[in-house]
Write a structure and sequence with these properties.
Blueprint: H1 9-23, H2 33-37, H3 47-59, E1 69-76, E2 79-90, E3 95-96, E4 104-107, H4 110-123, H5 152-157, E5 172-173, H6 182-188, H7 205-219, H8 223-235, H9 246-250, E6 255-256, E7 262-263, E8 267-268, E9 278-280, H10 282-293, E10 297-299, E11 302-303, H11 307-313, E12 318-321, E13 324-327, E14 347-353, E15 356-363, E16 368-374, H12 380-392, E17 417-421, E18 428-432, E19 437-441, E20 445-453, E21 456-459, E22 465-470, E23 476-480, E24 490-492, H13 509-517, H14 537-547, H15 569-577, H16 597-608, H17 631-639, H18 665-677, H19 680-690, H20 702-707
Antiparallel strand pairs: 1-2, 1-16, 2-3, 4-9, 5-8, 6-7, 10-11, 12-13, 14-15, 15-16, 17-18, 17-24, 18-19, 19-20, 20-21, 21-22, 22-23, 23-24
Helix pairs in contact: 4-7, 13-18, 14-15, 14-16, 16-17
Organism: Paenibacillus paeoniae
InterPro entries: AmpC-like (IPR050491), Beta-lactam-related (IPR001466), Beta-lactam/transpept-like (IPR012338), SLH_dom (IPR001119)
Protein name: Penicillin-binding protein
Length: 708
């Protein structure tokens, strides 16, 4: 069994790429315009059809790789129409999934229960959604430079304006005796407010944790006790809770990695996690779904929520466009369906923890709810949702009826620029064009955007929508797209201030100024960049880790003997811990020695070697000057176009990476910029298919340069 490990951001891009590959399958479920006009009808959702659908779906060869065990329940018109388990809760022990007893971590679906508890307190008049949330947390020091408070409603709709505060690496651990209270964690990790509250959507785990603390402080009960007493017990949810103990521990499904190998059990911090720590079964979740669809009624006069509260939780409060809603109180928009967008008639909640993924969705006007959970992270839900909709409710996949819109090329410039995801800063997007817009990222490469409304564009790749939020002057502030992170906005970067020693026609101006706009470099004018200055070994390590949002290690240096008291020691140690630099604790790193280009390539190659076979790059012919130990690394960077204009093909067809030359700051900027935008997975797939090097006749870092 694998021991618990948390992947660093170096592998994050590949994980996203896998999920994206299934997002791109959705056109197969698209309803044609002709079918939409004919008011398409799906199969009747009854026990026989629901069971047949589930059996066929989970038996499909396209589905099997994406789960070890799965548990699912479908409710309709006040009844459970299907409740089944597939695969194994424990593959090694051959223990099948039982929807009545197999316990799964349902992760962020916990947020819907936290929201329900908040609405109970609102009903009782103990809190108001428009209250400043700090009213309920004594002596909390919140830095908010805006004249608008962060309200409880903002917490519910994930529009707080908080700086991101996601779980830290150490928050997932194997110390089951460790206890950290919600109050202590909230106070130790309070973020500043960096955007006007209510102005932007960012998936916000911290906000839901704060809601959990408010529930404690207002009710006088612990969060876990409150949920147990006021939601679980009334509903008869006897296999739900927040602590891995008793029968929840005994019945917890084993979690698995992408290769279907088991992962060791783990604990979380805080010990009770309102934003993602709930454990439950499919059968228990059916009880919540039935009550929710009955307007909060349980039985007789007993309720968990008023009918008004349930209705309020089903209303979208945040939109970037009517076809792309964001959040309700406790729920979020469904996956986009090609040409249809995200239906505001459907409310959903997705959840992920290491080795577990979940999807809950309601179609209130159809009196229907579905819960799917499985013990392997992946895109099973991305396959399930569109197939379910197309089978039973194809009207929600019908193409949107948009009024004719005349796009004016001279109005497109306001959308162009570089965008950084508010939550996942590693995700960068470039938008450029004059007569038409082209969107580019390192996952999907470049594709055209066709304008269909004043702030709405359709992606020519899969016919899904991308939208922009505009300011009062009509300029783009934020973007929301369907692939990289549909659960939040990306912010447009400010125009680069430039550097006194990097003129506009400097060969590296595009990448240097681009990194300023993206916020990687400070965006201040009247300073010098020093493009010809040599980069030291420790500086390069720090630059790469910073780009991939990997923090410096708090551990004293263990890989090398010459890092004590060095300002970059924490970054070198972090690189050592994830395998980017190699040491045995007895040798020196020489942190202030200038790094050569091939040494830099070797560091980057170690972050990629587990994903890409070096044999794919053997056809790339290198000029003399690369040491044998660096050949694979240099070939990979050339193939992936991770370099600047200094690298050019020679007349004999070889390519000189200038491997033994010292790396300077301008060249480092080109590498960093290319890491953001070079579509490495596309290039690798093409190499495997063609068994030939990518074309080298264009300007270096061609994809990244085009993005600029």
């Amino acid at each position: 069994m694998k021991t618990l490990s948390v992947r660093s951001s170096f592998w994050f891009k590949s994980v996203v790429a896998v999920a994206l590959s299934f997002t791109l399958l959705t056109p197969a479920f698209q309803v044609s315009a002709a079918e939409a006009d004919a008011a398409p009808k799906g199969k009747t959702l009854n026990a026989a059809n629901a069971t047949a659908f589930l059996d066929d779906f989970f038996a499909a060869e396209t589905t099997k790789p994406h789960y070890v065990g799965a548990s699912v329940v479908i409710v309709k018109d006040g009844e459970v129409v299907a409740q089944k388990g597939y695969g194994f809760a424990d593959q090694e022990g051959k223990k099948a999934v039982d929807p009545a007893s197999s316990v799964f971590r349902i992760a962020s679906v916990s947020k819907s229960f936290t929201a329900a508890a908040i609405m109970q307190l609102v009903e009782q008049g103990k809190i108001s959604l428009q209250d400043d949330f700090t009213k309920y947390i004594k002596d909390l020091s919140l830095k908010n430079p805006f004249d608008k408070p962060v309200t409880i409603e903002h917490l519910l709709t994930q529009t707080t304006g908080f700086e991101i505060r996601d779980p830290k690496l150490e928050d997932i651990h194997d110390d089951f005796e460790k206890v950290v209270e919600i109050d202590d964690y909230v106070r130790a990790n309070i973020p500043p407010v960096v955007r006007e509250p209510g102005s932007s959507y960012m998936y916000d785990n911290y906000a839901s944790m704060v809601l959990g603390l408010i529930i404690q402080n207002v009710s006088g009960e612990s969060y876990a006790d409150y949920l147990d007493k006021h939601i679980f017990e009334p509903l008869g949810m006897t296999s739900s809770g927040f602590l891995i103990e008793g029968k929840l521990k005994d019945n917890l499904a084993v979690s698995y990695g992408p290769d279907h190998s088991p992962i060791e059990p783990y604990a979380v911090t805080p010990t009770v996690m309102p934003q993602g720590g709930m454990l439950s079964t499919a059968e228990d979740m059916s009880k919540f779904m039935l009550a929710f669809l009955k307007g909060g009624a349980v039985s007789g006069t007993e309720r968990i929520l008023s009918e008004d509260s349930v209705k309020e939780m089903g209303v979208y409060r945040s939109f970037i466009h009517e076809l792309m809603p964001n959040t309700t109180y406790g729920f979020e928009a469904p996956f986009q369906l090609p040409g249809a967008g995200s239906s505001s008639k459907v409310i959903t909640k997705a959840g992920d923890m290491i080795g577990y993924s979940t999807y809950l969705f309601f179609i209130p006007e159809q009196n229907t709810g579905v819960f799917l959970t499985y013990n392997q992270n992946g895109a099973l839900r991305n396959l399930f949702y569109p197939e379910f909709i197309s089978t039973f409710f194809p009207q929600y996949a019908a193409p949107a009826k948009l009024e004719a819109f005349e796009s004016k090329p001279d109005q497109l410039a306001k959308f162009a620029g570089f965008y950084s995801d508010l939550r996942l800063n590693i995700l960068k997007t470039a938008i450029h064009g004059e007569a038409s817009l082209v969107i580019h990222d390192s996952f999907l490469g470049s594709r055209e955007l066709k304008q269909v409304d004043h702030n709405l564009f359709v992606d020519q790749l899969t016919n899904q929508f991308t939208a922009f939020k505009l300011d009062a002057n009509g300029n783009a502030l934020y973007m929301k797209e369907p692939y990289l992170n549909p659960f939040g906005y990306a912010k447009k970067g400010e125009e680069a201030a430039g550097y006194a020693d990097v003129a506009g026609d400097h060969p590296y101006a595009r990448v240097i100024h681009g990194l300023q706009t993206l916020g990687y470099y400070e965006n201040k004018g009247n300073t010098n960049f020093q493009p010809d200055q040599a980069v030291t070994r420790s500086e390069f390590v720090k630059s790469v880790l910073t780009l991939f949002t990997v923090p410096e290690s708090p551990v004293a240096p263990t890989g090398f003997t010459d890092l004590a008291d060095h300002p970059n020691a924490g970054y070198v140690q972090a690189a050592f811990e994830v395998g980017l630099v190699q040491g045995n604790g007895k040798g020196s790193f020489k942190p202030d020695q200038a790094i050569t280009r091939q040494e830099a390539a070797a560091i980057l190659w170690r972050s990629l070697a587990g994903q890409f076979a070096p044999e794919a790059f053997e056809s790339i012919k290198l000029a003399e000057g690369t040491d044998e130990w660096a050949v694979d690394a240099v070939r990979a960077l050339i193939a992936f176009q991770i370099y600047g204009p200094e690298v050019q093909p020679k007349e004999d067809g070889t390519i000189d990476f200038l491997s033994g030359k010292t790396l300077n700051r301008a060249e480092e900027a080109a590498i960093l910029f290319s890491l953001y935008f070079s579509p490495v997975n596309h290039i690798y797939a093409a190499l495997l298919q063609q068994q030939a090097p990518a074309p080298q006749s264009e300007a270096p870092a061609v994809e990244a340069e085009k993005a600029a």
